[in-house]
Amino acid sequence: xxxxxxxxxxxxxxxxxxxxTDYGExxxxxxxxxxxxxxxxxxxxxVLELAPDRITRQAEQGEIDLAFHTSAGxxxxxxxxxxxxERYVLxxxxxxxxxxxxxxxxxxxxxxxVLVSNSGGGFYGVTDEALAQAGLTRRVALSVxxxxxxxxxxxxxxxxxxxxxxxxxxxxxxxxxxxxxxVPGYEMAMLWHDRAHRDxxxxxxxxxIQSAVRPGSL
Length: 218
Fold this sequence. Notes:
Protein name: HTH-type transcriptional regulator SyrM 1
CATH architecture of the largest domain: 3-Layer(aba) Sandwich
Helix content: 25-40%
Keywords: DNA-binding, Transcription, Transcription regulation
Order of helices and strands: EHEHEEEHEHEHEHEEH
Distance between the termini: 35 Å
CATH superfamily of the largest domain: Periplasmic binding protein-like II
Domain LysR substrate-binding: 16-212
Strand order of the largest sheet: 2-1-3-10-4
Oligomer: single chain
InterPro entries: LysR-type_TF, LysR_subst-bd
Largest sheet: 5 strands, mixed
Strand content: 25-35%
Radius of gyration: 19 Å
GO molecular function, one term: DNA binding
């Protein structure tokens, strides 16, 4: 078995394929992109939309090299590496009158919320589960399938959303505050098939992504 050092990124011509949601694109692929282009300029990268129910088959058949998914929701049978832990913050437009300080729980529930529904069209999520334990509800006025549109909707309206902190970190058009309700976060993982585990080029790619998203790198 050739050692990982046998891979020369400067002369490589690999075409890698990774599966990610728009959240994964922004928080994992994008931070790694500049380094990948600089160190391996002859390679190409295709980002496919993540289809959770097809990850295992795609990895087995070599259709994808990597997938980025929550650790809790990742399918069994694939290699994995935890990339980072994520937490939720409350976000709205930068000059939102209700977000200049942390809202009370009553104020939070009275606001109009945006929800990203991966299954499509849902109006109930982890925040609603947390509120239900306290006998409370909120008004979800908009359900969307992608974070990109959610951010645009927040910037253009008085709606707010519970969003992953890494996704909106440093965004000048949004204001974030700690939410008045405790909502559990999650871990993001990198997944791959055992067939590629010892491949030198694959090892290099995984190391670049791990380095790009390690704590303190963003």
